[in-house]
# Entry
Amino acid sequence: MLTMLRPALVLLAAFTVITGIAYPLVVTGFAQVLFPFQANGSIISKDGKPVGSALIGQLFDDPRYFWGRPSATTPFPYNGAASSGSNFGQANPALHERVASRLLVLRVADPSNTEPVPADLVTASASGLDPHMSPSAAQFQIGRVARSRGLDEAKVRALVVDHTEGRTFALLGEPRVNVLRLNLGLDELR
# Structure
């Protein structure tokens, strides 16, 4: 029995050291050297203080700011510890209620805007944490944000264009706007 147990325990100890200690340390070391911004949470700072992550959305509901996609996380929006979508299908009445509620909020916030509301402003992403919105979602909000801040719409539109990211490697995904970075840029406008 001991002859069979000894090799098993030696292998358990060896693989614990290799996969539980050595491998994570090597991967963490490479990540810190090659990709320090991403390895440390993609934290965005303002005046030397962290204000959020480039990878996790935040709730903005002040009319002076651009609003991102709704979040389906619980118990509060953009809860990084509870990443999930709503899992509501198109036929689910709860989805229709949420979309109608969000449409109402957007229309009340900017009654003069009669443009069609982009889908990503009324539906949550699969993770519920999406930090981006489509350029059309940003364009939809330019009038409200400019009026709320007393800014020229052309200036705000130019800011949106400056903050629009293209496709990854010029072919993956869709153009997008990081909501936090756009709002920080907005705060810098005078």
Q: What stands out?
A: The chain has a mean pLDDT of 93.
